[in-house]
Amino acid sequence: MTFQDYHARAELYLGSDRHTAMAQGSRTFATAAQAIRFALEEAAPVSLHGAMLEVGGATFTRDDLVALYHSPAFPLPRKRDSKRDRTRRPRRYHGNSPTPAYAAAGRQAVMA
Q1: Which residues contact 34 (CB under 8 A, 6 or more apart)?
Q2: Which stretches does the entry tag as region Disordered (predicted)?
Q3: What is the 3 state secondary structure string of 6-75?
Q4: Is residue 11's pLDDT more than 70?
Q5: Are 71 and 33 a contacting pair, CB within 8 Å?
Q6: Euclidean distance between CA atoms 34 and 37, whole angstroms
């Protein structure tokens, strides 16, 4: 796969399969980079199953979109990977949630 122009106008088709994507029609983006970023960061994951990008007569599939997005040549900033970059916060137990054993033991020690 060769891709030269992230700045070209692009048509993006999304759907659970290729037939559905074509039936729903395309979304037009000013640049291919914007279309790729929308497909991978904003669209529902199931809609990528039938994803297809048309740029200047060339057609790219879902796997191509993923490769283009992760390419070092991709010109737009990528959304932070929330699972990997997120700082972990301690769990809080509210309402009907069972109290963890360590919290219950600590509470009993304070009450004694």
Answers
A1: 10, 76
A2: 74-112
A3: CCCCEEEECCCCHHHHHHHCEEEECCHHHHHHHHHHHCCHHHHCCCEEEECCEEEEHHHHHHHHHCCCCC
A4: yes
A5: no
A6: 5
Instruction: Give the per-residue pLDDT at 86.
Output: 43
Question: Regarding predicted confidence, which is higher, 82 or 103?
Answer: 103
**CA atoms of 68 and 78, how far apart (whole Å):** 12
Q: Kindly tell me the burial class for residue 16, based on how many C-beta atoms sit within 10 Å of its own C-beta (0-12, 13-18, 19 or more).
A: middle
Give whole-number Cα distances, 83 to 40, 77, 79, 80, 86, in Å: 15, 17, 12, 9, 6
Residue 4: per-residue pLDDT: 74
Domain ranges of the chain: 1-80
Amino acid identity at 10: A
